[in-house]
C-alpha cells in the first residue's frame, strides 16, 4: 500500500530542495537498491511491483504498477524504487588526500569521480556549492554503493581552501607533468569545471599546477574531467 | 534545398546497415561538425536552419526547420546536421601500442576510449564485431574530432590476435599490478566487456594479465572500462 501523500513525497524528491528538506533520496533499479543496502545505507521505503521482489527485499512493499509509474523518473520504470535516508558523513577521519571539485556539472562525471574516490581509498570529496547534487538520480546510477563510502560535503571552496594546511594541487592544461611531479604524502587535488577548468577565485589557492602530458596530435581536445581524475588518483596512489 | 530522397537517405543513416551501405554518417551540433571539419573529415552535406550558420560553414545548405527536424535524431534539434563520408584508415602505420576492445557495448565508453587513444597517441583501435559501432551518434558526441585521428577496425579478434607478434596484455580484476609490471615497448592492450570482462575465447590469447590495484574498501565495484583504459594507457605512456 502506498498513500497519496507518500506518492507526493516521492515525486517531490526529484527536486534537490525537497531532498534536503526531508533528508531522503530516491534510486531505481534492483542493482543500485541492492548496492545501497549492502553498503549499509538506511532505507525509508522500498516499493516493488511484483511479489517475487517482495521475497528478495525484506523491507519491500508491493504497490500497483500505476503508482510506481507515478513515482518513477524513468520513461520505463524498472519495477523497483527505493527511498533512502541521506548518508551521514563520518566526522573525524584523518584523510591523507582530499579531492575537491570546482563546479563539476555533469552527473555522470560526478558519479564516476565518487566511484574513483572509493576505489582509490579517498575518504573525502569536497564540492563547490554549484557542483551537481550527489543525490541526483543520474549521479547515483553511476556511483552505485560507492556513495556510502565516500564523505561528500558541499562548501564554500574559498573558505575551505583558505583554512587548510595540506598542500593544494590543481589540474591544469599547462601544469607540470604529473609523471615527474613529486607528490606529497597528503594533499588536496582540485579538479575544475568541464568547460572552463578551475575558476580564478579557486586558482588563487593552488600551490602547484599539474598536468597529464599529451602524446597524440596537438589538436586533441582536453581529457574529460572524470578520466583525468582517474589518471591523477592513480598517480597519487601508485607511489 | 533538400529533396525528399535526401531526407530519406539521412533518416536511413540512423541504422548501421545503411551507414555501411552508403559510407556516410551523421552528427548534430555546431561543435562536433566543426571538430570533424577541422580534423579533415570530408563532408557530404551540411544542413542548417538559419542564415547565420550558412555564413559560418561554407558547405552549408539552408533548409526549413521542419525538414531538419525530420532528419534529426534529437527531440530538440540544434539547428545543424552534418553528413560526412566515413573515415578511411591509414593502412601502413607501424604502431607501438594497439588497443583491442572485446565487446564494449556502451557508446559513451567507446567514445571516451577513442578520445583517450587520441590523447595518448594510440593509432590503432581494434574492436570485436559486437562492439558498438563507432559511427553511432552517441559515440561521435563523446569523441568529437578524435575519431578522425584514430584508425578503428572491426575484426574477428581470435583471428587478429592469433596472427600478431606483439605481446598481448589483458585487463583483469586479478592480474598483476600494472604499477609493478614491466610493460614492453610495443604491445596490445585488451579491454573487456562492461559486465563480463574479457571473454574466454579472447582470453586464450592473453600472455599477461594486468590489474589496477584497489586502495579502498573491498566491496567497491570494479572500475568502469573507460576509466580503467585511461589509467592503463597513462601507465603505458609514462614510461
Structure characterization notes:
The structure is a homodimer of 239-residue chains. Chain A has 239 residues and is α/β, with parallel strands linked by helices. Chain A has two domains: 4-85, 60s Ribosomal Protein L30, Chain: A; 97-238, 3-Layer(aba) Sandwich (Alpha/beta knot), CATH 3.40.1280.10. Chain A is 35% helix and 23% strand. The first copy, chain A, is built from ten helices and ten strands. Chain A has helices at residues 4-12, 16-22, 30-38, 51-56, 65-71, 107-119, 137-143, 157-163, 200-203, 225-238, and strands spanning 24-28, 43-48, 60-62, 80-85, 97-101, 124-128, 151-155, 168-177, 187-191, 208-211. In chain A, the strands form two sheets. The first copy, chain A, has a six-stranded parallel sheet. Chain A has a four-stranded mixed sheet with strand order 1-4-2-3. In chain A, helix 6 (107-119) runs parallel beside helix 7 (137-143) and helix 6 packs parallel to helix 10 (225-238). The first copy, chain A, is elongated, with a radius of gyration of 20 Å. The model of chain A has no long low-confidence stretch (mean pLDDT 92). The A-B interface holds A 35, 38-39, 108, 112, 115-122, 144-146, 149, 179, 212-217, 219-221, 223-224, 226-228, 230-231, 234-235, 237-239 and B 35, 38-39, 108, 112, 115-122, 144-146, 149, 179, 212-217, 219-221, 223-224, 226-228, 230-231, 234-235, 237-239.
Amino acid at each position: 500500500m502506498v498513500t497519496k501523500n507518500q506518492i507526493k513525497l516521492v515525486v517531490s524528491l526529484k527536486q534537490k530542495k525537497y531532498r534536503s528538506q526531508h533528508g531522503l533520496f530516491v534510486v531505481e533499479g534492483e542493482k543500485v537498491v541492492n548496492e545501497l543496502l549492502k553498503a549499509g545505507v538506511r532505507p525509508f521505503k522500498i516499493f516493488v511491483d511484483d511479489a517475487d521482489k517482495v521475497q528478495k527485499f525484506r523491507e519491500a512493499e508491493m504497490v500497483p504498477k500505476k503508482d510506481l509509474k507515478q513515482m518513477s523518473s524513468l520513461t520505463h520504470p524498472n519495477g523497483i524504487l527505493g527511498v533512502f535516508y541521506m548518508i551521514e558523513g563520518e566526522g573525524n577521519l584523518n584523510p591523507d588526500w582530499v579531492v575537491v571539485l570546482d563546479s563539476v556539472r555533469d552527473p555522470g562525471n560526478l558519479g564516476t569521480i565518487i566511484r574513483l574516490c572509493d576505489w582509490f581509498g579517498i575518504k573525502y570529496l569536497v564540492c563547490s556549492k554549484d557542483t551537481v547534487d550527489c543525490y541526483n538520480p543520474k549521479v547515483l546510477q553511476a556511483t552505485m554503493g560507492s556513495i556510502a563510502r565516500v564523505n561528500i560535503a558541499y562548501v564554500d571552496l574559498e573558505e575551505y581552501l583558505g583554512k587548510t594546511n595540506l598542500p593544494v594541487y590543481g589540474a591544469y592544461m599547462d601544469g607540470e607533468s604529473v609523471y615527474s611531479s613529486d607528490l606529497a604524502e597528503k594533499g588536496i587535488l582540485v579538479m575544475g569545471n568541464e568547460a572552463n577548468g578551475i575558476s580564478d577565485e579557486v586558482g588563487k589557492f593552488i600551490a602547484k599546477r599539474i598536468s597529464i602530458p599529451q602524446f597524440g596530435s596537438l589538436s586533441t581536445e582536453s581529457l574529460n574531467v572524470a578520466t583525468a581524475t582517474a589518471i591523477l588518483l592513480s598517480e597519487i596512489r601508485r607511489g
